Amino acid sequence: TLNCGTTTISGAGTFTLASGGTLGIGSTAGITSSGATGNVQTTTRNFNTGANYTYNGSAAQATGSGLPATVNNLTVNNSGGAVTLTNSVTVSGVLTLTSGLLTTGANIVIANSNATGAVSGGSSTAYVDGNLRRAIAAGANSYSFPIGTSTAYAPVTIDFTAGTVAGTLTGSTTNGDHPNIGSSTFISTSTVN
After folding, report:
1. Are 131 and 148 in contact (CB under 8 A)?
2. Which residues contact 183 (CB under 8 A, 6 or more apart)?
3. Mind listing the pLDDT tens digit of every residue in the chain (193 residues)?
4. Fewer Cβ in 10 A, N or C end of the chain?
5. Measuring CA to CA, how many Å separate 149 from each of 12, 52, 104, 145, 175?
6. Residue 91 · residue 111 · CB < 8 Å
């Protein structure tokens, strides 16, 4: 485990985060694949897909271009409020939401394990602001989606009964009424938003 805080690792060498390793990222720019930004600024940077990544800054952060498209565990523990996904990411192990929002924008955070505990945490101060896709196992299971918007926490729990087939489900929410409420059969002045 290497907890960088706001310290920069730089130089003409190679930085390698091996499978099973954990990197604590405190830079507002996260980790980048090249250039003079982020916690790691060595000439060559290797961030393994089997490693664990913890965004634990004290100011708003971006994940950065160095975060692999697939990671083992991803933890958001940002006391500054938010971590924004630079690209979509698949979490093979556990997505842990401790503090701060994980803002996806048009990107998606994918909890690829169909274990019900593949997403841990979630509260009014720690949730996914955007798109959370979960792998769903066949059979009777219950899955939490700690989702919301920049202004509201709106978690959902979905219960599946026996007989369902495996698949995926993406959860997200928007502020206010749904954008297409005018063309729906609901009376917009009588709905809850």
Report:
1. no
2. none
3. 999 999 999 999 999 999 999 999 999 999 999 999 999 999 999 999 999 999 999 999 999 999 999 999 999 999 988 999 999 999 999 999 999 999 999 999 999 998 888 999 999 999 999 999 999 999 988 999 999 999 999 999 999 888 778 999 999 988 877 778 888 888 777 776 6
4. N
5. 42, 26, 10, 13, 6
6. yes
The pTM for the full model equals: 0.92
Tokens of 141: 């299971």
Residue-by-residue DSSP string for 34-103: SSS-SSEEEEEEEE-TTSEEEE--SS-EE--TTS-SEESEEEEEEEEEEEE-SS-EEESS-EEEEEEEEE
Contact partners, residue 69, CB within 8 Å, separation at least 6? 49, 87, 88, 89, 90
Maximum Cα–Cα distance for the chain, whole Å?
A: 63
Structure tokens at 5: 């805080």
Separation CA 109–CA 133 (nearest Å): 6
Rounded Cα–Cα distance for residues 41 and 7 (Å)? 11
Q: Do 149 and 175 meet the contact criterion of CB atoms below 8 Å apart? A: yes
